Amino acid sequence: MKRRSFLKNTLATGAAAVAVNAGLLTPTTVLADWNKKAFNAKTTDEALNGVFGASNAADSGDIKLKAPAIAENGAVTPVTVDASGIDGVESIAIMASKNPMPLVCEYTFGAGAVGYVSTRIKMGQTMNVIAVVKAGGKLLKAQQEVKVTIGGCGG
Amino acid sequence: MAIKIRMRGKSQNGVAEVKALIKHPMESGVRMNKKTGKPYPAKYIDMVEVLVNGTKAVDAQWSGAVSANPYMAVMVKANAGDEVTVKLSDNTGETGSDSIKLK
Lengths: 155, 103
Prior knowledge:
The structure holds 2 protein chains of 2 kinds. Chain A is α+β, with helices and mostly antiparallel strands. Chain A is built from 3 helices and 9 strands. In chain A, strands 1, 3, 5, 6, 8 and 9 form a 6-stranded mixed β-sheet that branches. In chain A, strands 2-4-7 form a 3-stranded antiparallel β-sheet, with no helix packed on it. Chain A is globular. Mean pLDDT of chain A is 81; it is low at 23-31 and 151-155. By secondary structure, chain B is an all-beta fold. Chain B has a single domain (4-31, 38-101), classed as Immunoglobulin-like, CATH 2.60.40.10. Chain B has no helices and 7 strands. The chains are: A alpha+beta, B mainly beta. The interface between A and B is medium-sized, with 34 and 32 residues. Strand 6 (103-109) of chain A pairs antiparallel with strand 4 (55-62) of chain B, so a sheet runs across the interface. Chain A: Residues 1-32 form the signal peptide.
């Protein structure tokens, strides 16, 4: 009886080990999973909850958000978020408030990085660009309206 | 086919701005093909990593709302001569990577 259960157990664990090796049971990935919940969110609050688990970001003047006041082509809106003046920046998320899926990108910083990101994003219409910075466990944000004049004929 | 990346980086006082230009369509999966009435299939870079001398410094996730042929600049703590690597993968499993020695 004992031997039987012993065999059973070893067989079961053996199978599990094989499954892990074959990549069937990926052990809860640390960083590597794309955050589907946050990126598919339809509102900025939902997206923030998906990324940080909270949506109550406080306005902060320490975040330097650089975006054009008027973007002639919304498909390439340059956005720079400079949070290097804040200590202990853990991550930065950039959102476009009225895009169908507001969350554009999310950066997580290790010890070897500075809280600074510059990129180009797509914007469908005139809306706010929101930068949310997580530093020392707190959420800070800055936002700016960008007028999008598609076709370049003024708005 | 690997994703093409062009990189540049210069260190000043122990901090380097690393710039990367990536050749990629960044198709969000939302844009409609007017002839067929169906959306173009999604193809966008979703995972980005920046490593300094093999140690991960920045870990980013992107959506299809990052512009086509993306430009990215980040700042890392590194000195001249350090090796900076950018690794990418898109939602179809295509990958790309490039490294440079900082000036």
